[in-house]
Amino acid sequence: MKTEKEDHRVPDIAPRAAAAAADEEEVSKELEEKAKKYLRGDGGYLETLKDKKLKGQLAVREELYGRSAKAAARAEKWLMPSEVGYLEAEGLEKTWRFRQESILQEVDISSSRKPFDMVLPVLGPYTMQYTASGRYMVVAGRKGHLAIMDMMKMALIKEFQVRETVRDVTFLHNEHFFAAAQKKYPYIYNRDGTELHCLKVCILLIFELKCMVESF
């Protein structure tokens, strides 16, 4: 009777560790480059100072300046929005001729797995807006259709009909509230579709609501 020996070999994690170390080193170099623009000039040459107390105080201050510059660089990297993408045509190419299939072949692997088609032929044309994180999307049809979607789960959160023209739509400070420029006034709704406020003090019609986000 033959018995199979169990394989107790430990998987080789060296390649993963090396890749992680390389990524960490790359991020560290990037942060150092970003931190340079937040430094308050070149540090003073403290070796020539004879006053030990003053020398110690200035050394501590220089260290604090360095820490604050690195903190600002980290905030810029992780909190500031990334560079906006764009299409660049070559030669006689026209960007309106680019197909989605061609774009998917050029983007990163993570993005290439997230294509979707949204067919809304009746109540359009539509305008849409994403949250800063890109997870939630609100859409507005010209004929009164409003809807919020969770794009990570590809799930509809809420949709409703306001029964009048909708010209534009945008999220406010988060995904729980959004504003819609309707036929006569802009309205504010929550994610459940409940009307919270009607801005009747606005006499002119609002076609671009994105400036409202900055006020929240």
Automatic annotation (TrEMBL):
InterPro entries (UniProt xref)? WD40_repeat_dom_sf, WDR46/Utp7
> Basic and acidic residues: which segments have biased composition?
1-11
Report any one BP term from Gene Ontology. Answer: maturation of SSU-rRNA from tricistronic rRNA transcript (SSU-rRNA, 5.8S rRNA, LSU-rRNA)
List the GO cellular component terms.
90S preribosome; small-subunit processome
Chain segments carrying region Disordered? 1-28
Q: Which domain of life is it from?
A: Eukaryota
Protein name (record): U3 small nucleolar RNA-associated protein 7
